Amino acid sequence: MKTTAAKAIAQALIDLGIEVVTHVPGYGGTETFQAFNELSMKNNKYSFHEEAAFTIAHSASICGKRSASLMKSHGLMKAANSVIDALYTEINAGFVTIIFEDRSGKHSDSILEIVPILQGLPMNFIQSSTATIYNDVIKAYHESEKRKSPVALLVDSLEVKNETSFEQKSNLKKTFTYKRDVYQHIIHPMLSDYQYKVFLAKKFEGDVTSIQRPTLPIVPIDFPDRAKTTAVKYAPLFDVFKNYRGDIVTGDTSGLSSFAFPPYDCVDIVTYMGGSIPLAIGAYLSGFKNVWALSGDFGFISAGMIGLIELLQREIPIKVLLFYNKQAAATGGQPINKKILRHMLGGFENCLLHIANPLDLFEVQNVLRNAAGSNEFKLIIADYPV
After folding, report:
1. 3-class DSSP string for 39-73
2. CA-CA distance, 140 to 152, in Å (whole number)?
3. Which domain holds residue 60?
């Protein structure tokens, strides 16, 4: 088959059964993204920020769907907050980030050499060429699934319109399953030593199975004092939430993520602070329709709003539970100006629900039941006193 490099990439993604594809507009990636939508007859939405785009695709791969994220070299730098934590997780289906290099700088604000950055992370990558692009995409997914880790494929953006030829392959599609795994899907300080050992084993192609898993902590008794105080504070709400938690619950790296552990088992996927909403979007796009995202107010203000924009772009009816503390509880209790969140959520009145007293279990149950029974996006604010 003869076609352009952009269409060859798109065809390879289709032949592999890729359904979740994210993209932030940029030369090379845009042509490929458009080709994918046209050839697959789908209407995948573009993203506004690479951090969210990468996270959505990463979450989908954890949840058992092959996924792709298309971005420029500069975009990977914006996504780095999510990329770093993604390297400490284990995915269930292949996830490839296709990076479109602009070595001339003609379509970027500067020339960025991405290879040293990928080597430093380290993130496994394949340098592609126009002549081999179709097979290189397939190779990248096989590598990702062998390592159970994200892989990057580097493409020269100036060559996406060049002609290439390839022999189309069949029987490339594969079914994957999701299984909850706290050790691999929850980035948490109490698992960091184990997860770092796994990371190093993957880096040097060692035996991951030989690394002993630590005993999971019990909430709240096995936590250090500050984390224990936060867990005790949130426990009454989670005592109710566990009855409404749905198929997948995503969280941030904050006190909320502690409730991934027993006896609550209320959170399934956590990567970076503020990442719960794009993680929830990825879970939803991979087929799980009853999805909740949990976030603290600091995490939401710092990065969560990026995910909320992606949610609106796709009109996805997930539920977001926001723990409104008026402080950065995970980093020492730095105060948050109350005006900030109010202004950020000014256009969401029709979506908002409030829990005025999180210690009132009757009120918590009524609000969560209301949200869980809705077919629309709901953002619940649990208002904790300072």
Report:
1. HHCCCCCCCCCHHHHHHHHHHHHHCCCCEEEEEEH
2. 7
3. 2-160
Q: Is 171 within a domain?
A: no
Q: What are phi and psi of 345, to 5 degrees?
A: -100, 15
Half-sphere exposure at residue 122, Cβ-oriented, CA atoms within 13 angstroms? 11
Is residue 319 a part of any domain in this protein?
yes
Question: pTM above 0.70?
Answer: yes
**Angstrom distances, CA of residue 216 to CA of 97, 189, 191, 205, 226:** 32, 12, 8, 26, 18
Does 180 map to a domain?
A: no
SS3 81: helix
- Strands 327-328 and 334-335 turn out to be antiparallel
Q: Are the CB atoms for 56 and 83 separated by under 8 Å? A: no
Q: Which of 98, 3, 114, 102 is nearest to 53 (CA)?
A: 98
Q: Are residues 118 and 241 in the same domain?
A: no
Question: Looking at the 3D structure of the chain, how many domains does it have?
Answer: 2
How far the first Cα of the chain sits from its last, in Å, is 64
Q: What is the pLDDT of residues 248-271, one digit of tens each?
A: 999 998 888 999 999 999 999 999
64 φ, ψ (degrees, to nearest 5): 100, 15
Q: State the sign of the Cα–Cα–Cα–Cα dihedral 325, 328, 332, 337.
A: negative
pLDDT, tens only, 300-333? 998 889 999 999 999 999 999 999 987 676 676 7
Helix ranges restricted to H, the chain: 5-15, 29-40, 50-62, 73-86, 115-120, 133-147, 182-185, 192-203, 225-241, 276-285, 297-299, 305-314, 338-344, 361-372
For residue 304, give the CATH number of its domain.
3.40.50.970
pLDDT of residue 132: 98
| Rounded Cα gap, residues 277 and 285, in angstroms | 12
DSSP for 89-138, written as a single string = S--SS-EEEEEEE-TT-TTSSS----HHHHHHTT--EEE--GGGHHHHHH
Collect the ranges in the chain with pLDDT lower than 70: 327, 329-330, 332
Tokens of 281: 């979007």
Q: What was the pLDDT predicted at 100?
A: 97
Does 201 fall in a domain?
A: no
Q: Considering 160, 185, 202, which residue would you say is the last residue of a domain?
A: 160
Instruction: Identify the residue whose tokens are 């289906």.
Output: 93
Q: Which residue has the tokens 């989670």?
A: 238
